[in-house]
Amino acid sequence: MELNIQRWIDQLRAGDVRTLARAISMVENRGPGWSELLKGLFPHSGKARVLGLTGPPGAGKSTLVDQLARFYRKENRTVGIIAVDPTSPYTGGAILGDRIRMQEHFSDPGIYIRSMATRGSLGGLARTTADVTTVLDASGRDLIMIETVGVGQDEVDIVRLAEVTILILVPGMGDDVQTIKAGIMEIADIFVINKSDRDGAENVEREIRTLQSLAIRSDGWTPPIVKTVASEGTGIAELADAVSKYEMYLKEKNLALNKSVENWQKRLSEMLRDALLEKARGQITDGNLARYAAEVAEHKRDPYTLVEEIAANAGKS
Amino acid sequence: MELNIQRWIDQLRAGDVRTLARAISMVENRGPGWSELLKGLFPHSGKARVLGLTGPPGAGKSTLVDQLARFYRKENRTVGIIAVDPTSPYTGGAILGDRIRMQEHFSDPGIYIRSMATRGSLGGLARTTADVTTVLDASGRDLIMIETVGVGQDEVDIVRLAEVTILILVPGMGDDVQTIKAGIMEIADIFVINKSDRDGAENVEREIRTLQSLAIRSDGWTPPIVKTVASEGTGIAELADAVSKYEMYLKEKNLALNKSVENWQKRLSEMLRDALLEKARGQITDGNLARYAAEVAEHKRDPYTLVEEIAANAGKS
Prior knowledge:
2 copies of one chain form a homodimer.
Chain A: H1 2-13, H2 17-28, H3 34-41, E1 49-55, H4 61-74, E2 79-85, H5 96-104, E3 111-117, H6 125-138, E4 143-149, H7 153-159, E5 164-169, H8 177-184, E6 190-193, H9 201-214, E7 225-227, H10 236-252, H11 256-281, H12 286-297, H13 303-313
Parallel strand pairs in A: 1-4, 1-5, 2-3, 2-4, 5-6, 6-7
């Protein structure tokens, strides 16, 4: 197994796309050897720039990501795209739209698109995405874009992996737009108003400005607002420019490492939790878990005491 | 402490709203005694009906929940509402809109509204929501509605607690509507097309029917589609009727307990994971975690091996 993994790593670093795809699947599915593979790849990671893009449904994220990818390809940078779809807890694999996207870029090996759906894994989507990012990073991609639908806690966790987080909004989002923006204000490094040729773009901009005046970021950065019409390619160069400026700001102020350390504190905690769960799982058979669940569901047993007891015994054997 | 907790439980069960509010805060913040409190309350829970309502931003969830609450109050049932806002990882407490809602219902002690935001707790929002539901349930509320913004994995986890899950859609949601619906199809027991007086309501209905024809539920239930205009109170009685019908179906087919057992299998796993994390936390000081994170961020250390080592030592002391 060891030798095999080393060959995978070599092929992956040599740019073999088929190995890349297989490696990502292995990591995603926690197939045998996934942990060894990541251990072997980690030292080769850390060179790629990672952008996170999120926003509500209908904001045109995929189109924007595609346009950005084209832009960076013209600068001869290789691109990896991770399209995360947390809305699909049951369906594994790529959704139709992503398959079509993949085919479009098929002729350019400089763009690699990977679609990910939640698989109900206890490891969590954010963690799997982080691991897949490590694989893409180690494979030598210059730039990785993580694209995620929605703006829930999951998405916040996912885009937090990125050095630069881009929040995509659109005019006319309805009553809840205030809520979304207030929640995600703190993590958006750059705001995009996409479909900005529509009515209401000025309203969205004004609302962002108002919210910005209420909350000052601890790093002193004022997130710029970039207007785009992604379907026509308008504003894409400006967005790429905003990304560069923020990256320079991070570098000048020595903030990049801090951000990474903070992320790793969180990730290490989560990884530890997962490792411990696996350990505990070894102590409770599926049959026992089902029996316990039935007892609790019938209110014959209090779950809080039960869990305390199992945890107290964990690791003793 | 023991005695104090018992007094809380007594007061809470006697219907004291102030104690209810304090108990929820204790559970939400994991304040001293939270675990004892839940242990004491659990035997008194299990009587309330729990409805979960979710949908994309702008779908009019709050208005719909308010109208449903009014409807059930006319039937003399007491209502508890948990408004979950996973979009706000940093802001604790209620958002403005919810405060206004709470004031509106202030004169009726039969409606209790609680707003919850993610607090970045490692325990996770779904688990905290489940615990708050237990508190409300034990306090004697007849009906609990869990309302959540968005349709990410978080929301799926949250609404899964409910016996009946209602997915609220609106006409004209844009390109991603297909994605949302495909993902959440499996968990929606009832579809609502709100703002159904708008253009495009028929389109949404057709899309739901198409998706339904593709995926047959394992429990044999065909989720009905209810059209509402929540702001005018239209369709609310029909929605309540659909809820009753599904509850009767669950009862007839003996499915309610199965659903509950499945939920508890998942919840027990999660609770166990959290308990183990706490245990592990005791073994890594914050200082150590920060140091490890710095080493990983600087690529001096591989996180995968590190976590394995810590997990292997956990529980040995």
